[in-house]
Write a structure and sequence with these properties.
The protein has helices at residues 3-14, 18-25, 29-37, 47-62, 69-77, 88-101, 106-113, 117-124, 133-148, 154-161, 171-182, 193-203, 206-212, 235-252, 268-271, 276-289, 304-313, 315-318, 368-383, 397-406, 427-436, 441-462, 476-481, 501-517, 561-569, and strands at residues 230-234, 259-263, 294-298, 323-327, 336-342, 347-353, 361-365, 386-387, 389-392, 413-416, 467-472, 521-526, 534-539, 543-548, 554-558. The protein is α+β, with helices and mostly antiparallel strands. An 8-stranded mixed beta sheet has the order 1-7-6-5-2-3-4-8, with helices on both faces. A 7-stranded mixed beta sheet has the order 9-15-14-13-10-11-12, sandwiched between helices.
Length: 577
């Protein structure tokens, strides 16, 4: 529809004359006449469009119709050329970042814009350009604004685009900001959630963390005798207070029952508060100190960066082995956000319009009947959930060994290594490395037996499928600054058994020679690995195994399709030496 047609449609719908529109808008009669005849078209987001939209809304109200000013402005803006001179590579990068952050697939965008899916795919991968780029930008911005304005995704959009969230009061505002951001020729810094998650996992040291929060010095207070049976909270600030009160009540109680925790509330506003994350983490540490097991149901249907932000905040707790993470397979409603957290001593329940936590209501219950009711609801919710990942610590070593053996089927594998794989090291070289380490004879024998078993398994696998290894190839200065240890995470051995530089080079050369003898094995040398304490293996399209070597030795077997796909698409950053 052209601007002329859209404007005349509004005039006819409201039942007014061009002169009435001119008088109400403050524009001249000839200007309105030219707009209605198609002789002139105003610029996108111009003062003239805003004046016309306001006038049409006012005149409609006088006639008993409800037409919102921002909706009229959006409809009129959609019909005019943005007039943007766009740097196409920058636009394409920004568009793909935006779609990825909102988890919008090309097929979904194609349906929304009435494009052929293959055509949209070619646009997104850069092999084709839209016939009219400005119109494509406008239509894309309009669709995203209609879908996400007022939702919990708004803070993430604001962070990516640099648009202040408080300036987005309507779908029209969001649409207008997105139009100019997509055509701004200003490239956004592509924040990579998987890389950030792995980086925090790589750096994390459980012992240092427990020392930093004085975990051993935490004194659990005696149980409180008198507490009110319920307390009501309103707004975002009080919602954060309710979370802390729930933790306090649970810690103060004598109950040792497991906790079930669910929330699909947006995280970024709470994470931006300088004090709340510290208090929340300390409170969670107190729950763990008490010995409680936490069943956490994550909302994975958030925009992907926000979902990963939530997982990052739980890394310290994952390391303790007292966490069982889950997810709900179906997307939750986009209209309401909810939270439900239950322990043996308290229940916290609340809801808000999505993206409007400042107007939400949250109630903390302490009466037995209320706790019994909400605990049943939480248990029902847990039954509908699926494991997000399986977490294995030393205590689950035998179970981990059995489960990992099952992954060596015929699916292609890719491993990004923090060290070199044990199955390629010659036995005499491994024996030489182990002789310098302070290990028991039993541990040395265990490592040598594991090396033999791993080699046999790899040889069998390479006869039927492919394995890609990305291994560190370090300069002398890099190696001197940070020597490499034997990779023993699968054995849950945390000793730093370091190679000498000559031993590491010998193992690397043997790995390359081994690959030369087995066509299904490819080895790619990485001169500047980003992660030194972790490795991860992608098994087909089915799962990802993330292994941390020490502090503590722990493995995450990730099943969720969205996370697996994100790992498959992740390109490890190059870290300058």
């Amino acid at each position: 529809m052209t601007f002329q047609e859209q404007l005349n449609s509004y005039i006819e719908q409201i039942g007014i004359s061009q002169k009435e529109l001119a008088d109400e808008s403050g524009l001249s009669n000839p200007t309105i006449s030219r707009y209605c005849s198609g002789g002139r078209v105003p610029a996108c987001n111009s003062p003239q469009i805003r004046q016309i939209a306001k006038a049409l809304s006012t005149l409609a109200s006088s006639g008993g119709l409800v037409l919102r000013e921002e909706d009229i402005a959006a409809a009129l803006n959609e019909t005019v050329d943005t007039g943007l001179m766009v740097d196409y590579p920058v636009f394409l990068q920004n568009l793909n970042l935006l779609l990825k952050s909102l988890d919008i697939r090309g097929t979904e965008l194609a349906r929304a814009l009435n494009y052929d899916a293959s055509h949209i795919s070619k646009i997104l991968n850069g092999t084709r350009k839209p016939g009219n780029l400005n119109t494509f930008i406008t239509e894309t911005a309009s669709y995203i604004a209609r879908r996400f304005a007022g939702s919990g995704a708004l803070p993430g959009i604001a962070r990516l685009t640099g648009i202040p969230a408080d300036r987005i009061r309507s779908a029209s505002d969001l649409r207008n900001h997105l139009v100019f951001w997509l055509g701004s020729n200003s490239a956004s810094d592509p924040e990579e959630p998987i890389g950030r998650f792995l980086g925090k996992l790589d750096d994390f040291d459980l012992n240092e963390y427990l020392k930093a929060i004085h975990f051993d010095e935490i004194k659990l207070p005696p149980a409180a005798l008198r507490l009110p049976t319920s307390k009501t909270y309103f707004g975002l600030t009080h919602m954060m207070e309710s979370e802390l009160d729930f933790i306090k009540t649970t810690v103060l109680s004598k109950s040792a029952e497991d906790c079930i925790l669910y929330s699909d509330m947006p995280l970024e506003e709470m994470a931006s508060d300088p004090e709340f994350p510290k208090k929340w983490m300390f409170g969670m540490a107190m729950l763990l100190k008490k010995g409680l097991h936490l069943h956490i149901i994550h909302d994975v249907n958030r925009p992907f960066p926000e979902m990963m932000l939530g997982l990052e905040s739980h890394i310290p707790m994952y390391m303790t082995g007292q966490i069982s993470p889950y997810y709900l397979p179906a997307a939750q409603g986009s209209v309401f956000s909810h939270l439900l957290k239950v322990s043996g001593a308290a229940a916290l329940e609340g809801s808000a319009i999505a993206g409007k936590q400042h107007s939400g209501k949250y109630v903390l219950y302490r009466a037995r009947e209320d706790i019994r009711h909400y605990r049943k609801r939480a248990a029902d919710l847990l039954q509908k959930s699926y494991p997000l990942m399986d977490i294995y610590r030393m205590e689950q070593k035998s179970l981990y060994t059995l489960e990992i053996a099952k992954t060596w089927g015929d699916e292609p594998r890719k491993t990004v290594c923090g060290s070199l794989p044990l199955f390629t090291i010659p036995e005499d070289l491994l024996t030489s490395v182990l002789q310098r380490a302070e290990l028991s004879d039993e541990t040395r024998a265990e490592i040598l037996a594991f090396r033999a078993e791993s080699r046999e398994r790899a040889l069998s696998f390479l006869k039927k499928s492919t394995l890609q290894l990305i291994v560190p190839d370090l300069s002398a200065d890099q190696y001197e600054a940070q020597p490499v240890s034997l990779s023993l995470a699968d054995l849950f051995i945390e000793n730093d058994i370091l190679y000498s530089r000559e031993e590491y080079d010998a193992h690397l050369q043997e790995t390359l020679r081994f690959a030369g003898e087995h066509p299904n094995l490819t080895v790619e040398k990485n001169p500047a690995p980003a992660f030194r304490n972790i490795s991860y293996t992608i098994v087909g399209e089915r799962l990802v195994i993330v292994s941390k070597e020490k502090s503590p030795a722990i493995h995450f077997v990730i099943h969720h399709k969205k996370m697996v796909q994100a790992f498959r698409n992740f390109i490890p950053p190059i870290v300058e030496s």
